[in-house]
Amino acid sequence: MNNSKQSNRKEAKHNNDTALVGHDVTFAEFVRFVTYSELHKESPNPHISSVKKHCRPCSSFFTFIGKLENIAEDGSYVMNKIGISKNAITALETNISNLTKDDAITDSIRGPFGWKKDVLKHITWDKALQRLWLKLQMRGLIEKDIKLELSNQQIMSMTSDRFIDIAREAYARSDPGKLKQQSKAVQKEAFASVPLKDLKAFRDAFKDDFILLGYDPSPKELYDRSENPAEPSVYFNKL
């Protein structure tokens, strides 16, 4: 990040518009916010608060914990347990990957289009669509080399249904192997941008969740690094 861009960001942090809307928040800032909210019990949003607060593992007896990354296998297990037919289970195993990806595409797109009036108060619609496209790339749904190229007329007349169709076409053209590598690269770049002390504070705040769900609280690929953060160079520098 060059000095002029850093200066602009520092100036923006004193702008009420940024403080209220959050459209200029970095990943490192978000991690600090989530950690602070958890430690000070100031997080009413269930998306960023501890799982143990909602599932209460100490007062409930869970016999199975499913994970989205294993949705085909875990979904089949649950369906079999509750007596769903083998044909339905086979159909799930065959189609679940594309179904979940398509759900992620449509869910990512419909929200911003629904907020369009508010979005336009802070950034241009062209910028909003480019950010939305980048989000789909960062989620591993569209290859990073597939660009969103729209004319001014297309931007102004764009509907959510049309944008979903464009995204679906791009997903169909994307290589699954490259998308998987891309997701890992995004994760690595994101966490590398966070100072190590903040990353450790985040880990400690949510350590019980990591253990409960069977995740390594300190994966070497994220924590085996220097204290200083790295400047985003591929994905997050475009925001």
UniProtKB/TrEMBL annotation:
<dbReference type="GO" id="GO:0016051">
    <property type="term" value="P:carbohydrate biosynthetic process"/>
</dbReference>
<dbReference type="InterPro" id="IPR005331">
    <property type="entry name" value="Sulfotransferase"/>
</dbReference>
<dbReference type="GO" id="GO:0000139">
    <property type="term" value="C:Golgi membrane"/>
</dbReference>
<comment type="similarity">
    <text>Belongs to the sulfotransferase 2 family.</text>
</comment>
<keyword id="KW-0808">Transferase</keyword>
<keyword id="KW-0333">Golgi apparatus</keyword>
<keyword id="KW-0472">Membrane</keyword>
<keyword id="KW-0119">Carbohydrate metabolism</keyword>
<keyword id="KW-1133">Transmembrane helix</keyword>
<feature type="region of interest" description="Disordered">
    <location>
        <begin position="218"/>
        <end position="239"/>
    </location>
</feature>
<keyword id="KW-0735">Signal-anchor</keyword>
<dbReference type="InterPro" id="IPR018011">
    <property type="entry name" value="Carb_sulfotrans_8-10"/>
</dbReference>
<feature type="compositionally biased region" description="Basic and acidic residues">
    <location>
        <begin position="218"/>
        <end position="228"/>
    </location>
</feature>
<protein>
    <recommendedName>
        <fullName>Carbohydrate sulfotransferase</fullName>
        <ecNumber>2.8.2.-</ecNumber>
    </recommendedName>
</protein>
<dbReference type="Pfam" id="PF03567">
    <property type="entry name" value="Sulfotransfer_2"/>
</dbReference>
<keyword id="KW-0812">Transmembrane</keyword>
<dbReference type="GO" id="GO:0008146">
    <property type="term" value="F:sulfotransferase activity"/>
</dbReference>
<keyword id="KW-0325">Glycoprotein</keyword>
